[in-house]
Amino acid sequence: VFELTAALRQEFPIDDQRVYGVGLSMGGFGVWDILQRKPELLAAAVAVCGGGDAAYADAFKSTPVWAFHGNVDLVVWPDRSRAMVKALQAAGGRPIYTEYEGVGHDSWTQTFDNRLVWDWLFAQKK
Question: Mind listing the pLDDT tens digit for each residue in 106-125?
């Protein structure tokens, strides 16, 4: 992902102040991983039914994050998102967290159909 991002920056006029991370399930884990490995890369992130290593939250506490999860997800336990949000809050970050009542692993359909998510994301910049 990092090599691809670098290559795309060479080929296209990408606004470095508006690079976003969006992913669901394993891609949600990928978004958290990008934040942990290269916290300076993203202007904002949307992580859907993913998780990461809460020990790194301090590194990206200033990056706007909106996390989503279904409360009955049996594929990726909701505690994975809850732990990341809690760690960011403890580090001084201000993540947004939406947990869908009665929703399993498919928490992305509601998320990506919500225009407010996209409006929020595209309003973020470094």
Answer: 999 999 999 999 999 999 99
